Here is the input.
Amino acid sequence: MSKFSGQAVSWEVNSGVIELALRREPCNEIGSLTLEELEKFVAALDGLQQDAHALIIYSSLKSGFCAGADLRELYRRSQEMERAAAAKGVRDYLARIHRVMNAIDAAPLITIAAVHGVTFGGGFELALVCDLIIADKMARFCFPELRLGLIPGFGGIPRLKRDLGNAMVRDLLLTGRSVNAMKAQQIGLVSQVVSEGAVLRAARATAAQLGKFDRRTAIAAKQFIKPIPYEELQQEIDIFCELFTQPAVEAGLRKFVESTDAQPYLP
Here is the structure.
């Protein structure tokens, strides 16, 4: 399937570059619909990568790259089931998310996250899957999960540890505060910062540059410098699921769902 247009994502191949667009209003929250369409993308990836050397993931929405998990859906499901059943449902959901994230992480392509605006929680984790993050100057990165009584669950902690020093990892994880694009570049999270509205153009230019080199060499280099921390990723799922059964999580999710703020995911 070389081209797809769904409710949450779309993709196509242009000049040897796969472009995966996030397009679910209001800010690309990752729920069951988005996950199903991302699974379709991963299933199609073997065929797509035969004619491509790079992958760009970006958002077609003005609101930002991705606000993270669909917490309203998570809360609704937790209320509809007994606690044990809800916990099993969450574990199954996380296992599916991790399969998607790991497949993109390990893909024999150079992957680029082109981010702008809100890049929080699960959206931040999706960006961390990619080999390069290019951000426009209005992008902000944050792990707000602790205010819900949780930790990031889509693979964020092991991948952030892979990319950054532990001091910054602890700061982002434990304080829940956001960092802007310039700070993200200073700490080595972002490779390029560009002007507002220019991030997709910059990502395309970078992908064109990547196409000048031997693909096998590029993939060998990627595999050498970017190992996937499978054991720690599984530990993250276990810790998340253990925390999910605690009363603090239900209270945090309820507070989020009942919020009247226009953007309740902002810290």
Summary: The mean pLDDT is 92. The radius of gyration is 18 Å.
